[in-house]
Specification:
The structure holds three protein chains of three kinds.
Chain A lengths: L1 H26 L5 H6 L5 H11 L5 H13 L13 H36 L4 H14 L3 H15 L14 H35 L2 H8 L4 H39 L4 H11 L2 H29 L1 H4 L2
Chain B lengths: L2 E10 L6 E11 L4 E5 L6 H9 L6 E9 L2 E2 L5 H7 L4 E4 L13 H12 L4 H14 L5 H6 L7 H13 L5 E5 L7 H18 L2 E6 L2 H7 L2 E6 L2 E7 H6 L4 H8 L5 H4 L6
Parallel strand pairs in B: 3-8, 3-9, 6-7, 7-8
Antiparallel strand pairs in B: 1-2, 1-4, 4-5, 9-10
Helix pairs in contact in B: 3-4, 3-6, 4-6
Chain C lengths: L1 H26 L32 H37 L1 H15 L3 H12 L3 H28 L2 H8 L4 H9 L4 H24 L11 H8 L7 H30 L3
Helix pairs in contact in C: 1-2, 1-10, 2-3, 2-5, 2-8, 2-9, 2-10, 3-5, 4-5, 4-8, 5-8, 6-7, 8-9, 8-10, 9-10
Chain lengths: ~300, ~270, ~270
């Protein structure tokens, strides 16, 4: 239990560090945001007034603590470009990103678990070889090329997919059906990696002595796999899956842009282009939180699944 | 005869050159008998035991005959063989550390054979498991039932293995170097427990060991293996007092320095 | 074993071809990659224009060569920067150990936990786009993964006998680090380099595709892909040629890495 709290404390420190970095990075940026807000012809007084209004004239540490407490309270600052609270700007976008990420994650799990188990069950069989070769190729394709491929195949050739974002207000099912295609482009490489990891993990476990014990009790091969091997083999896979969530979100950045999905990724790209730093800052901190939370989750799941560690 | 092993051979075709691990072994065991199978590591004694239960890897080619209660275990289908495994014949392995599943509570592993072979409900399974654990000499079975394998000592783990092998009261228990990985005082207690089980339940025990003293301690008959063949067999006292083969003499003489043999004992 | 060699061989062959193709593309292309031609707009692949032409009549084969050259030079520069810095930091941390090592590694863990594209985007948001900034951003972000890799290997090697012998013989510490241990970490480093190469190509391509990477003056494969996507319907061969080039580049390095890892796993 102490290890658990130690871990939690470490995460808090990491979060503090990341927020400080995110704050510092966008505070020491050379370009003064007042110029982009007021334009080239602003007077000295106008600039000074705006600087005071934005709190740019206070000492750094004070600006950081104010910014951090505001951030924790859910006040992410004001967008330079849209002149509205960043949290209001991001709220509708979080939904789209969450939906895409969640759907991709489900796809990865739903496809890779059975494939990995089947491939390991018949080592060097036809399916195993097929999965290994396809996996190697799939892992070599960047998400956005997969995305272009998905558009080309499903929208232009087969015509089963309209290249226009369907918001959830137009019906949940239509929304999910639309997101399925970009999710495919996000999920494929990770699916290949998960299949490979699970296959290797199962094959490694099948060589363990306890498997021989299970067979000696009269267990059928399938029962050995499901009741005895699966939990042990899943320990590294579950950890990997938890750690993969940030990668899925990173892949969605590109995919959102490609498919025109109004999510956090698209917002991030346009804000970088517009030098809308409060928005970039907020998205970076959210991403950092996701990364830290997922690494905590991975650790927690590992402890839950492996009794040799969980007890301590 | 309960068990008749006839001209049993095991060849590993995947090795280059092909490895003959067991080379025409024959022996018999009666109901409730205590037979020891002795030999150095690599002599083929463990492979013989694993061949009887059908636990060798697919690459191993097994020939000859293994008749158990009149049925040939080698020619029966895998489904039929699974009905014998863990029910009529059970096995205890050498390494109690790795032979138990690290992520399954001890109780569930003891019950495993019950889940495979019977349609018992959970409470009944637990009662039977606790009985078996008591028979295997585990103190405080209720607590051990809920424990994880890593929470037990080596000796306790081996007793848990024995309990899991006994839960369906098999007619034959194969003990493959059951005490080699344990220290001497625990060794003696485990052997006492095995003797108890034989006396109470009438379970025949095939004890495999590189250590002739361990075999003498428990068994009435012994067969000595070398290079995949049985070179000498007979009543344990007779073999011990007047060994015919030089190899057997060597095995007896090597007893004080048995550390040397311990290392590779698992392949014996 | 045979299959692993096959991985390595195919990977080397593929990489050699792709690197040659890209290197030549840095200096010479069959046509001027930016020469416009109104008669050749959307020309389909033919013998004169191997991969056809784009919306402005530019020869796609030449453009792919040029783009591959840019992408490859960025990837190599990133590897050189991140690899060298990571090597030195990792080697020192691994050899020195202690509090400095713990601190640096904690920092590396924090950076490595983030998807590299995300961090690179943020860095570029601050520094602005351009080839040099892309190299700097990715290069710095690649330091931690190399440092961790080298450090782990150093920790292992440090305890081996040949290092202890060198220390006893009075060899200077820095000399031990860079002359004695470093060459032995090369196989591990090499496999890391193949992964790093792939990540560099993928990250650069993604960023340039998003319009936050290279500027139009030196178009890379990713930048061209964002152009090509606009006329996916009329000239799918443009996208195809670019995508194919990226995939083959990554696949080649991936296969080499796979081959090296398999070879190390075999202990040969």
């Amino acid at each position: 239990m102490t290890a658990f709290f130690k871990r939690l404390a470490l995460l808090l420190v990491t979060m503090l560090l990341v927020t400080a970095l995110a704050f510092a990075a966008f505070t020491v940026i050379p370009a003064d945001p007042t110029a982009s807000i007021l334009g080239m012809n602003a007077t000295e007084e106008q600039i000074a007034a705006l600087r005071a209004k934005l709190g740019l004239d206070l000492p750094l540490w004070q600006r950081y603590t104010t910014w951090l407490t505001d951030f924790v309270r859910g006040n992410f600052g004001t967008s330079y470009r849209f002149s509205m609270p960043v949290e209001d700007l991001l709220r509708p976008r979080v939904e789209a990103t969450l939906a895409l990420t969640g759907l991709s994650f489900l796809l990865i799990v739903a496809v890779s678990l059975p494939l990995g188990l089947l491939a390991a069950h018949k080592e060097d069989g036809l399916l195993d070889r097929l999965v290994t070769v396809c996996g190697q190729v799939t892992m070599s394709i960047p998400n956005f090329i997969l995305g272009i491929g998905v558009i080309w195949l499903f929208a232009l050739i087969l015509g089963v997919f309209q290249q226009k974002y369907v918001p959830p207000e137009d019906g949940l099912w239509a929304h999910i059906r639309y997101l399925l295609f970009p999710a495919l482009a996000v999920a494929l490489p990770k699916t290949a990696m998960t299949v490979r990891l699970l296959r290797g993990s199962v094959l490694g476990e099948l060589r363990q002595d306890y498997v021989r014990t299970a067979y000696s009790k009269g267990n059928a091969p399938r029962a050995v796999l499901v009741f005895h091997v699966l939990r042990n083999a899943m320990i590294p896979v579950v950890t990997f899956l938890a750690m993969t969530i940030p990668d899925i979100m990173a892949a969605s950045i590109v995919i959102e842009q490609l498919f025109g999905i109004p999510g956090l990724g698209q917002m991030l790209i346009s804000s970088i282009g517009n030098r809308d730093y409060p928005v970039v800052q907020a998205i970076v901190v959210i991403a950092a939180f996701v990364v830290v939370a997922c690494s905590f989750l991975a650790d927690l799941l590992y402890r839950l699944m492996d009794p040799r560690i969980g007890g301590r | 005869m309960m068990l008749e092993v006839e001209n049993l051979s095991v060849v590993f075709r995947d090795r280059r050159p092909p490895l003959t691990a067991v080379d025409g072994v024959s022996f018999q065991m009666g109901e409730g008998e205590l037979l020891g199978l002795a030999g150095e590591s690599g002599s083929g004694k463990s492979r013989t035991a694993h061949a009887i239960l059908g636990l060798l890897p697919a690459a191993a080619e097994v020939s000859g005959g293994v008749r158990f209660q009149g049925r040939d275990l080698l020619t029966m289908s895998s489904v039929e063989r699974r009905q014998v495994q863990g029910k009529d014949i059970s096995i205890v392995f050498q390494e109690p550390m790795t032979s138990l599943n690290p992520t399954m509570r001890v109780g569930r592993q003891v019950e495993d054979a019950l889940r495979v072979h019977t349609k018992m409900a959970a409470p009944e399974r637990k009662t039977r498991a606790l009985e078996a654990m008591e028979l295997a000499g585990l103190p405080d079975p209720e607590r051990v039932y809920r424990a994880w394998p890593h929470e037990l000592s080596g000796g306790m783990r081996q007793r848990a293995m024995i309990a899991s092998a006994l839960v369906l009261r098999p007619r034959l228990l194969i003990a493959d170097e059951p005490t080699t990985a344990l220290d001497v005082t625990v060794q003696a207690k485990i052997l006492d427990t095995l003797r108890e089980i034989n006396r109470k339940e009438g379970t025949a025990i095939l004890l495999i060991s590189h250590d002739l003293l361990v075999i003498r301690n428990l068994c009435t008959r012994v067969a000595v293996m070398k290079d995949g063949r049985i070179v000498e067999s007979g009543p344990v006292d007779q073999v011990f007092q007047s060994p015919r083969e030089d190899y057997t003499k060597l095995l007896i003489a090597s007893r004080p320095t048995r550390k040397k043999l311990q290392g590779g004992g698992s392949h014996g | 074993m045979r299959r692993h060699n096959w991985y390595l061989r195919l990977g080397c062959l593929l990489t050699a071809v792709m690197v040659m193709f890209s290197l030549v593309g840095c200096f010479w292309t069959p046509y001027d990659p930016s020469a416009l031609s109104s008669t050749d707009r959307y020309a389909a692949p033919s013998l004169t224009h191997l991969f056809g032409c784009d919306s402005l009549g530019r020869d796609i084969f030449s453009r792919v060569m040029q783009g591959a050259g840019t992408t490859l030079s960025i990837a190599f520069a990133v590897l050189l920067l991140g690899g060298t810095a990571g090597l030195v930091i990792g080697a020192l941390c691994g050899y020195v150990g202690g509090a400095a090592d713990a601190l640096v590694m904690r920092l590396c863990d924090a950076v490595a936990a983030f998807p590299s594209i995300l961090l690179a985007l943020v860095v570029l948001a601050v520094t602005g786009p351009g080839k040099r900034n892309v190299i700097l951003a990715l290069g710095v972000l690649f330091i931690p993964s190399f440092a961790r890799l080298v450090r782990g290997e150093f920790l292992r090697q440090r305890e081996l006998d040949y290092v202890k012998a060198a220390r006893l013989a009075g060899v200077r510490e820095l000399r031990i680090v860079f002359v004695h241990i470093l060459p032995n970490t090369l196989p591990v480093l090499l496999s890391g380099v193949t992964i790093g190469f792939n990540n560099a190509v993928l990250a650069e391509a993604s960023m340039s595709y998003l319009g936050i990477g290279v500027t139009p003056q030196d178009p890379s494969l990713g930048y061209m892909l964002s152009e090509a996507q606009g006329f996916l319907m009329r000239a799918p061969w443009y996208t195809g040629a670019l995508a194919g080039t990226v995939i083959l580049l990554v696949l080649g390095a991936g296969l080499i890495g796979e081959g090296i890892r398999a070879r190390m796993g075999d202990g040969t």
